[in-house]
Design goal:
This protein has 455 residues and is an alpha+beta fold. It contains 12 helices and 18 strands. It starts with a helix and ends in an 8-residue tail after the last strand.
Length: 455
């Protein structure tokens, strides 16, 4: 009996099916339990757990069948990950555990109906799935899962839980693992300053053969790198024109003599060297003058980062201040210079950080939102007066999140609220009150680095 047949029959045997006979010499207690972990928990058994259950079975304290029932009905990990799933979600999840793919729609509909009518119990779902497997590809996936899981349990110092989880969840039938698969480790995520000589050191492990290395960049601005077939990848950290640079992501692939492959990725962040205060500094050019802002990156990290992402994308360029109210606020980020309401380029809404202790005082910048506290996207306003009624109040108002302040150019804000306003309607039928008769245009928004005036 080959490994694929062994795995197929073994699962049938331990799950109570009489359709496949496996002799006692074909399996061990630990193998049976290992396959329960794969099928029901989607992972390899840890060494301590496998040893405990194997001893319990061998000593007659429990049977493998009782372990199966225990996993589905009492095991905390199973109950946490599966206990609240709908029948549809459960059917898909168990199928993915076994075969790394979802069932086709007709099959899914059938199994969901079987679960909902009580024709099959959740603990018997794997039995039904295994009985229905007929393709060599699916059986190879299961056999590969077994080999990988056994490698983890047998060699815990070499195959980490993260290594083996990645292998088990990404296996396909393109290769047959007759031996322990290679493991790639691209190292920890790192940060380098612009111009710094950078190196990401990876390694590959294979118990039975040597491995070759292959690096490639899979995300971020393309850069020149050193030898891509060495264990370590070297490069010079590139300059970044953005305030928040995109990370660079590299993939390491290791291949053994049998053609089996292991992959891993590492993220590299490129940082600017901001002297003095590390807060982000922003320059906003308008047709009425320049406004400089300091963002409170530490106190309002989500909001400040969100704003800087829009700055990086040049989102605010050629947008209007569409709402200006004396002794209150000036607001922007929603209307373009050709009087259209923005519908593209918006990022997902962010959580409201108004409880950060910052107050809507004159000269501060905060996020506009709807009645939903966590609905802020791109619109912001600058307080032209103290507006503490917009602050967070415990047990009361959710508030409006302050995330920065004007450091110069407050007179430009004062000039904005002094202009004549009217009520307008854009081409989409959206009405705006307190709209400047003569447009106030944001020409550009960019980050900058403060200079030391003493030099």
């Amino acid at each position: 009996m080959n490994l694929r047949q062994h795995f197929h029959c073994l699962l049938l045997a331990i799950l109570g099916s009489a359709s496949c006979q496996v002799s006692a010499t074909d399996l061990t207690t630990s193998e049976q339990i290992q396959r329960l972990y794969i099928g029901y928990l989607g992972r390899a058994a840890d060494g301590a757990g496998l040893e405990y259950w194997t001893n319990e079975v061998d000593n007659g304290a429990i049977t493998v069948d009782q372990i199966r029932i225990n996993i589905v009905n009492e095991q905390p990990e199973y109950l946490e990950n599966y206990g609240q799933l709908s029948n549809t979600e459960l059917a898909i999840k168990v199928y993915q555990n076994l075969l790394n793919r979802e069932p086709d729609q007709a099959g899914l509909d059938y199994w969901v109906n079987e679960l909902e009518t009580g024709s099959i119990a959740p603990e018997d779902l794997i039995i039904a799935y295994i009985n229905g497997i007929s393709s060599a590809e699916d059986e190879q996936v299961m056999a590969n899962k077994l080999t990988a899981a056994e490698c983890y349990t047998s060699h815990p110092g070499i195959y980490s839980a993260d290594n083996i989880e990645k292998i088990i969840t990404e296996l396909d039938s393109s290769a047959s693992y007759s031996q322990c698969p290679p493991v790639a480790d691209a190292g920890e995520n790192q940060s380098f300053a612009i111009g710094e000589s950078a190196q990401v050191a990876g390694f590959g492990v294979d118990l039975e053969s040597t491995v070759t290395y292959q690096w490639r960049q899979i995300y971020g601005p393309t850069i020149e790198v050193g030898n891509t077939e060495a264990a370590a990848l070297t490069f010079t950290a590139p300059d970044v024109s953005q305030c928040i640079s995109e990370p660079l992501v590299f993939e390491l692939k290791v291949t053994d003599d049998a053609g089996a492959v292991g992959t891993d990725t590492v993220q590299v962040n490129i940082t600017r060297d901001f002297p003095g205060d590390s807060n982000s500094l922003v320059e906003m050019q308008t047709n009425l003058g320049t406004v400089n802002l300091e963002l409170f990156d530490s106190t309002a990290p989500v909001t400040a980062s969100n704003f800087m992402k829009y700055v990086d994308a040049s989102f605010y360029d050629e947008k209007l201040f569409h709402r200006v109210i004396p002794n209150f606020v000036v607001q922007a980020g929603l209307v373009t210079s050709d009087y259209r309401t923005v519908t593209t380029g918006l990022l997902p809404a962010i959580e409201n950080e108004a409880s950060n202790g910052l107050s809507n005082l004159r000269g501060t910048i905060a996020m506009a939102r709807t009645s939903n506290p966590d609905s802020a996207q791109a619109q912001f306003f600058i307080n032209q007066a103290d507006n503490t009624m917009l602050d967070y109040q415990e047990g009361g108002s959710a508030g409006y999140a302050v995330f920065g302040q004007v450091t110069s150019g407050i007179e430009v804000i004062d000039a904005m609220v002094a202009v004549e306003t009217t009520t307008v309607q854009d081409g989409q039928g959206i009405q705006y009150q307190d709209f400047p008769v003569d447009p106030i245009i944001i020409e550009s928004v960019s980050c900058y680095i403060a200079t030391d005036s003493s030099e």
